[in-house]
Design brief:
Rossmann fold; 50% helix; 3-stranded parallel β-sheet
């Protein structure tokens, strides 16, 4: 600093820039050690009929691939059971404050009747706004 002041005025770099320079190598090393993202990471899937059968198996496959899954079924209790299986399998998430979804995990259960347009419209409205 004295040497810089002898020739001109010393000006320090901003704290954020100093932090970025100091910790970038550590951050880069951490990122290289992380496992690669799964194919469906950061994706959302809505599966109608998730309470049983093939659609329930599809939900399990999507979860395994890293997706968040909305389990919908005309029988809400069946959809909820499927969603709870996932939570038991992978744990609860942190949720979104103020949304009523605290610690909901990677799934949501919703009621939806595939033969009722209004029911499907309500399902997708819930999914988009939740």
């Amino acid at each position: 600093m004295r040497g810089a002041e002898a020739g001109n005025e010393y000006v320090a770099i901003e704290q954020q820039e100093a932090f970025d320079i100091e910790y970038w190598l550590l951050e880069e090393a951490k990122l290289q050690r992380m496992p690669p993202e799964q194919e469906m990471s950061r994706q959302f899937a809505v599966v109608i009929g998730a309470g049983s059968g093939i659609d329930k198996s599809v939900c399990h496959r999507l979860l395994k691939e890293g997706s968040h899954v909305v389990c919908a079924d005309a029988n809400y209790l069946a959809a909820e059971t499927t969603a709870e299986e996932f939570v038991k399998k992978v744990g609860v998430g942190i949720g979104v404050a103020g949304s009523g979804l605290s610690a909901c995990g990677p799934t949501l259960a919703r009621s939806a009747d595939m033969t009722d347009r209004e029911s499907l419209s309500q399902l997708f409205e819930d999914v988009v706004w939740t």
